Amino acid sequence: MRFAVFRCCPSHLLQAYEVSANAILKALDLTSVEVKEFNCCGYPFKNIDFKSYLLSSSRNLAVAEQRDLDIITLCDCCYGSLQQAKHVLDQGSELKEEVNRSLRRERLEYGGKARVRHLLDVLYRDVGIESLKSKVVRPYQGLKVAAHYGCHLLRPSQTACFDNPMNPAILDRLIEVTGAKCVEWSKKTKCCGAPLIGIDDELSENLAAGKMRDAADAGADLLCSTCLYCQLRFSQMQASKSVSGSCKPGISSVLYPQLLGLSLGIEPFELRINPFSHGISSSHDA
Q: Which of 114, 149, 177, 193 could make an SS bond with 207 (beta carbons 3.0 to 4.6 A apart)?
């Protein structure tokens, strides 16, 4: 399987995501194609200039289509942005013709052939649960995890088309492939507060702290995230010593590629993680 990997613009702030994702793609024989012509998905200005956002996302879709490749995204925000653009253009509206007029200046055109896939979607539907289980060599023992999906992976459901937005289960199943157990928690599908940074910092902190407290109160040893922005928010909360309504001590967040990668036998340095600092242990460590 070959995919055009769509990198998130601020990925330099969390290089562990790209590094760990690359490691598991390689371990699972999934061929990732780097496309230098990709640009920003347009998410930062979607609510400021919708047409500019639409053109930005559409150009990426057209670039992938020209290469006869589907897109695999690592970031929930990028996934949501590309999916929404595809949904709008596939309605056959005047916007599609307007976008294509601009794209033709670069000899590009959106035809709707390139699919947008999230990393989790590829792991779940293409690789498959049983195949992943067969590759686990260092299963976790007694590890309890709270699955955090992130807003844009699930909503709006008519464009995201990933999982049940009210009761998602795909990430839970992918986590349990590793031997870890998922906990039920009330704030599972709630926002982490990241979009409010710089707008209402106190509310952003309260939302993130509330999620982390709820996960800890449900018995989780750690959170598992699939979104770059969410992971950055949780990491900031964990590092802060003076956050209002601070979270329960000891709860931290890891990226799913890191959690999966360790169970596949990939060395921690290849995943940019110190398992001991997160309280993660596997049968290999025992």
A: 193
Is residue 227 within 8 Å of residue 153, measured between CB atoms?
Answer: yes
CA torsion sign, 50 to 52 to 55 to 56? negative
Question: Is residue 96 classed as helix, strand or coil in its secondary structure?
Answer: helix
Contacts of 66 (CB under 8 A, 6+ apart): 108
Chain segment 111-136, per-residue pLDDT in tens: 999 999 999 999 999 999 999 999 99
Last residue of a domain, one of 118, 144, 173: 118
* Domain limit, last residue, from 90, 118, 146: 118
Query: What CATH number is attached to the domain comprising 143?
Result: 3.40.50.11810
Distances, alpha carbon 24 to alpha carbons 44, 48, 158, 185, 238, in Å: 28, 36, 29, 28, 26
Instruction: Mark the ranges of the chain whose per-residue pLDDT is less than 70.
Output: 241-250, 281-286
Token pair listed for 212: 């982390």
101 strand-pairing partners: none
pLDDT tens-digit map of 216-252? 999 999 999 999 889 999 988 888 755 554 444 458 9
What is the residue type of 235?
S
Q: Give the pLDDT score at 286.
A: 41
CA atoms within 13 A on the CB side of 172: 14
Note down the domain range covering 222: 136-271
% of the chain surpassing 70 pLDDT = 94
Two tokens at 141?
A: 């023992």
**In terms of domains, do 142 and 184 share one?**
yes
Residue 19, CA distances (Å) to 147, 154, 155, 204 in order: 21, 24, 27, 28
pLDDT of residue 285: 52
Nearest of 83, 91, 69, 81 to residue 4 by alpha carbon: 69
Name the CA radius of gyration of the chain, rounded: 19
Query: Has this prediction a pTM greater than 0.85?
Result: yes
Helix (H, G, I), strand (E, B) or coil at 69: coil
